[in-house]
Amino acid sequence: MLEIEYEFREDDLIHYNDLQRKNNKAFQSNLKKNRLIYPGVIAMIGLFYWSYYGQIDTALYILAVALLWGIMVPIALVWEFKQKVLGSYSEQEKKDMFGKYRLRIEPKELLEKSPSGKHKMQWSELLRVDYSQKYVYVVIDLDSALIIPRETVTEGDLEQFSKQVAKMIDMYG
To answer: Cys-Cys crosslink for 104: which of 3, 52, 93, 143, Cβ 3.0 to 4.6 Å?
Structure first.
């Protein structure tokens, strides 16, 4: 049976959640508002002060606030999101999550040996295999996946393994 071993790190968890954030319509809408709409409204108020009252100093101050808002608030929102991701796990959960993983393809299931122990996942429980330049994801449900960083694979052929996993999911899913 095909088998791989890899290491799962904190950066990998942040990357996956960042990917989820980028696909989250509500978060992207909030980011767009804080990047464009709110600073645009503030800038229009500044331009109003300049054109109507002739107060260039006040207008420049307001425009500076709009510019800083458009730059700093989105950065703060993304930073807060990353901190929330890490803060949502206890130290014990992090200890159980990060470290060496071994995945083995069995006839009826995918066997996972991780820092938290052994787990069996039936092929019918898995949705699909997704690929990116640095990762392979075995998607379990809409919010979770086995995240396999290409650079930390120490044993096995990841490409062959992932193709076989996809075949098994198609066959039993």
So the answer is: 3
**What whole-number distance in Å separates Cα of residue 150 and Cα of residue 136?**
7
For each of the domains in the chain, give its residue range(s) and CATH number, in order of start.
3-9+91-172 (2.30.29.30), 16-87 (no CATH)
Residue 139: both structure tokens together? 């998607």
pLDDT tens for each residue of the chain, 173 residues long: 789 999 999 999 999 988 888 888 998 999 999 999 999 999 999 999 899 888 899 999 999 999 999 999 999 998 998 898 888 899 999 999 999 999 999 999 999 999 999 999 999 999 999 999 999 999 998 888 999 999 999 999 999 999 999 999 999 87
Using DSSP's 3-state secondary structure scheme, residue 66 falls into helix
Of 72, 71, 77, residue with least CA distance to 26: 77
DSSP assignments along 68-115, one per residue? HHHHHHHHHHHHHHHHHHHHTS-HHHHHHHSEEEEEEE-SSEEEEEET
DSSP annotation of 52 reads I
63 vs 39: CA distance, rounded Å: 8
pTM comes to 0.78
Triad 81, 21, 5: Cα angle to 5°: 95
